[in-house]
Design brief:
107 residues; mainly alpha
Length: 107
C-alpha cells in the first residue's frame, strides 16, 4: 500500500490506470460507466483517483471525504496552473523578452 501511495503521489495517471486494471469492479461501482473515469484519467487524474479510493458502496462520498477530494482537485488545478506559468514564454505575445520584466507605467 505504501508503494501505491508513492506511485499515486508521483504519477496519478499511472496509479489510477493500475488501480482500474487491478480492481475494475470498484471503479465501475463508483462511476457506473467508463466515460467518467476515462475523462478523469485524462483531465483530473488525482481527483478521480481520490474519489475512487474514498468511495464507499454503502454510503458513497460523505463528510470529510469531500475535503480530500477538494484537496485533490486543487492539486490537479495547481498542476495545470504551474504548467501554463512555466510555458508562458513559449506563447506568442506572452513573453516580456530579454528578462526585462513587465512594462512599467510612468506617473
Amino acid at each position: 500500500m505504501c508503494l501505491f501511495a508513492i506511485l499515486a503521489g508521483m504519477f496519478p495517471r499511472v496509479a489510477f490506470a493500475v488501480f482500474w486494471i487491478a480492481r475494475p469492479a470498484v471503479v465501475d461501482a463508483a462511476f457506473g460507466t467508463f466515460i467518467w473515469p476515462l475523462l478523469g484519467l485524462i483531465f483530473i487524474p488525482f481527483t478521480t483517483l481520490m474519489y475512487v479510493i474514498l468511495w464507499n458502496p454503502a454510503t458513497g462520498i460523505t463528510g470529510a471525504d469531500w475535503l480530500w477530494i477538494g484537496i485533490a482537485f486543487v492539486l490537479d488545478l495547481g498542476h495545470y496552473t504551474y504548467s501554463a506559468y512555466g510555458n508562458r514564454d513559449k506563447v506568442p505575445g506572452m513573453s516580456f523578452g530579454g528578462g526585462e520584466g513587465p512594462p512599467r507605467s510612468s506617473m
